[in-house]
């Protein structure tokens, strides 16, 4: 359901309402309860291609505890496998339990869901009888914004270089933890890297999220007939929530402290190596997806290395290494790969032709490609007014650019076997230089003030007041 007929007007800050359909997203309302009243929906934290994420109150202990409640689409493999592929579900559970039980210092850089996962039905379920299908739900610790959230509001669309260089080794160490157990992540991109929340800041963070909510009424495009009803009452479209809840995390970025530690999140595409996607069921951001996965071939841990290379480039420069500029994403990204890397080996080219039943990539022309990896990285450093790329000479020395180019070129090799392991990535001179100067990754609220410039005066403004100040500017609508 990546490409669907548009029926609803787009709502800024909310998911695509056209994805509330058979096999799609589950409608959720504020105050809705799950698991016999244990979890109560408080607000929306975010959304993605395959799920919505909610702040939920957990009443299991009677304490004021909150969790992140991630509800997958009905056609997501995690949801489908629970009723159609018991073996796949068992393998996933075993892999998850292995990671939970593992004792490893690098485990801190992976945000694992709690053991209390659950399923829930709704009219958009994937069985023949509406309401008989299920959506898989994972319960996570509450985390902060994603690197993607930070990048989209940052100056020139790239993170502060210190923050970027601190995050990259942590992501690599988290991936090493997973790979050391033969488990791949499967969907590494900037929106799946979350800032961790220090335990002293967690109560204040949840207070921010639950203090207010913003809702909007969905509207059908002109000429679209209304459906029989909304989920939750009212008059409108079947299987669609009565109102949209705006994601709060992006709206609160200016009030959330920048954390010194990040973690890999969203285990929905996790796999045991080797693996192969079912036709039409690939769950990987296409611009970060390794070519063997785009071509529907068997893949393994090296596919994560490719994605990590793309992610490193995006974190440092605020742009995707292989951009998506067309409505045919797989072919478009493969063409972008050819521009950067040259023509793929004949074995991969033939596999692509067989998978697509046509030679949509054409044939090698012998012409020079537009930008190779080295030229692209040098452009990101030196700047290019025509491409709206600012100069970054102070952020990267010539030696560092040379080392970074060497690392990324090794990670985005067409042949999976030619890519380095995550251990070799961590041992690379460029990565070692980041690790050698890495600052402490955890810092409590008492150790670091939220904002030294909160006031022009020398008033003793606490972090609590600074973060809560201005919440009234986000009124509740609906």
Explain this structure to me?
Helix 1 (77-84) crosses helix 2 (86-101), helix 4 packs antiparallel against helix 8 (301-317) and helix 8 (301-317) packs antiparallel against helix 12 (398-411). The chain has helices at residues 77-84, 86-101, 147-153, 161-179, 202-211, 248-251, 291-294, 301-317, 329-341, 346-356, 373-382, 398-411, 422-427, 429-436, 463-468, and strands spanning 33-34, 39-47, 51-58, 65-72, 118-120, 135-140, 183-184, 193-195, 215-216, 244-245, 262-264, 271-272. The chain is α+β, with helices and mostly antiparallel strands. The two termini are 28 Å apart. The model is unreliable at 127-132, 228-236, 364-370 and 439-478 (pLDDT under 50). It contains 15 helices and twelve strands.
Descriptive labels:
478 residues; alpha+beta; Phosphorylase Kinase, domain 1; Transferase(Phosphotransferase), domain 1; two-stranded antiparallel sheet; 12 strands; 10% strand
Class derived from helix and strand content: alpha+beta
User: In the CATH hierarchy, what is the architecture of the largest domain at level 2?
Assistant: 2-Layer Sandwich
The CATH topology of the largest domain is given as: Phosphorylase Kinase, domain 1
Strand content: 5-15%
Please tell me the overall pLDDT: 78
Radius of gyration: 23 Å
Query: How helix-rich are the residues, as a percent range?
Result: 25-40%
The count of domains is 2
Low-confidence stretches: 127-132, 228-236, 364-370, 439-478
